[in-house]
YibE/F family protein (Vagococcus xieshaowenii), 346 residues
Amino acid sequence: MAKKKLIGCLVLVMLLVGGDFFFAHNASRYEEPVFKIEKVRELSKTPTMFEQTLTGHLLNKQKQPLQLTHTYYYSEADSVKLNVGDVVFLEDNLQAVSQVKRDRQTFRLIGCFLLVLYLFSSAQFARNIAIIVLNTVAFVLIAKYMSQKGGSLIGAMVLYSFVSVALTSLFINRQFKKRMAIFLSTIGGTFLAWGIALGVLYVTHHGGLRYEEMGIVTRPYRSVYYASLLIGTLGATTDIAVTILSTIGEVLEQQPKADVKTLYKVSRNVGQNILGPMTNVLFFVCLSEIIPMSLLYLENGWTYQTTFSSLISLELFRALTGGLGIALTIPLSVLVGSQLLRGDNQ
């Protein structure tokens, strides 16, 4: 087993090295001008705005040497400081940088994720990758179809929720009843928590929520936020449902005649152990969304009170909705699992 894992790891590393080499030399595949920076001379124009003179050559087109100027701001909110070795896309007139070429860095990040995933779950590696790929494909297809047909964003995310949970439960377990238990528990906990959250927003008329940071959204911002609440809650409840139902399955394998009360006690203990950590995960995800924008606002002279009152409300409500979904999924998983799974052991 260890030998197979080592061979698989070496094959994966070789594929990642080959992929990294490909993305380092794929400039000819882009229609936009690709420019590699070989020399940077920086001039300070103001305390907050800087101008750089970039010297290098094009990696596609005529591969000619080129020199241009680039302006960035101290905060780097909508601009970036460039360094020697960076590869960027240029405007068609070859006079300005449009954006940084990051496909190689993105591939490296994905490669590290795949390598860690294989090291810690080599037996289920193919299954885990299949779940990720199929969920991604389903999301893209549903989003593309809805955008072409002019459908509702919320409707698209509701449909994706059902498809995603169905695909996940299909790959996680081979037994039909366990698949059904995972599906019903996840969907039930997700939509119950989401419905309660929407009900609270309706009753309170969105009091206390600040939507200013969503001002750049081109679609109705409330629909976008509602959809994000649903998808965020779905991720948390899926994990909880799988954990609780796996515990119930293990108990029934050891004690086929275990009653509902016994299953409830065992599942409750597991739920109590994972409720705190999962809620903390949601809270830190909330902080990760807030911190970058908070630093940007504070650097531009906003007060602490104005900054955090503007940013924290949406993320905190999203975290609370996810926590509610976790809390509701635990008893729901026990109820569904004890009814569906006990039938196989009686």
